[in-house]
Amino acid sequence: MKKLFVVLICTIAALSTAAQPTLTFSKNAYKPGIASKMAMIDYTEPGDSGQNIVWDFSKLMLYDTVDTKMDTINYYYKGWFLGDVKLELKEFNYSFFFDISRDSILNVGYAYSRSDSVVRYTDPILKLCFPLVYGIEKRGPISGKYYEQGLTAGVIEGDYMFKTDGWGKLVLPDGQEFENVLRIKSVRNIHMKGEKRSFQHRNVSYKWYSPYVRYPLLALSNTDMVNGQRVRKQKRGMYQIDIKRDTSEIDPRLKDFYAQADIYIEYDLEEDCIVKGKLIDEWGQVHQVLFEEYQVAGNYDRTIKRSRIPEELIDGSLVIEMLDQEYEKFEEKIIKLF
Known about the structure:
single chain; eleven-stranded mixed β-sheet
C-alpha cells in the first residue's frame, strides 16, 4: 500500500492595506512578445517619496522614441548557475538568462551580454517581488565574474536594494494621468576588480507602475561609472506611449492568497510508481503540470512555492496523483489553493 501525506508549512508575512495599489506577476511582470513604445525625455528629479504623492511631469518634452519587445529563445546552459536549463530573454542588445530550475519570482538570477563582454552573476539579484505593495524593501549582495572575449577579466562584488517608496498619482509628459501608481526605487552598486583594469558602477533608478499596465509608465535612471581615470555620468528618462491598459480588476484576495503557507508535500512509497503534481483551475481544467516522475520505493518530500502559483488559479487546486506501471491512477489528493 502506498501512503500520501500532505501538510502546509512556512507561513509568509501578510501584506498591508488594501487601499494601496497592488502589482502582480501576471499583470505587471515583463512578458515575452509584448511590445511597448517608449519616449525618451531629459532626466528630471524623481520627486517625493511617501503616500498619496502627485508626480507631475507634464512639462517635460520628448526628443526620441524607441520600440521595445521581449523575445524568447530556449537554450541549455551548464555551469552558469546550479541548474542546467535556462531561459533566455532578449531585449535590445541585452540578453537576460533565467535559471528556471532554481529561480522563482522572489529570486531571479541573470546575466547580460553585449558584443565581446559578458557579466555572469553567481548570486541572484532580486528584480521584483510579487505581489508588490507600498513599503516593501529588499537588499542583497552582488557577486560574479566579468568576461572579455571569452576570458575571465575580473571579479565582481557589490550590493543592491529596491524599495516601493511611493504611491499616488502620475501625470506623464503627454498629459496622461494615472491614479494608484506605485513607484519603485532601485539602487545597484558594482565594483569590478581585474588585473588589467577595474571599474565602479552605481545606478539609481525610479520606475512608476500602474496595476493595469505591463511595462513601467515612466522610468528615470541615473548612472555613475568610474573606469580608471575616466568618470562618466549618464541620466536617462523614458515614458510609455500608446499604453495598452487591462482595466479588469485585480482580485482583492490576492494579498491574502500569497500570504498563505507554501505547500509542503510528504509521502511514503512502498512500491515503485509514478507521482504527478498538477495545478487545475476552478473548473477542473489542467493549467500546468508541475512534475511527473517515476520514483522508486522510499520517502519523499517537496515544497510548492506559493509565489510561483499563477494568480488566476486563486480558486483552483493542487492535485497529487499516484499512478502504477500501467499509468492507472490508484490514489489522488486534492488541495485547495485558497
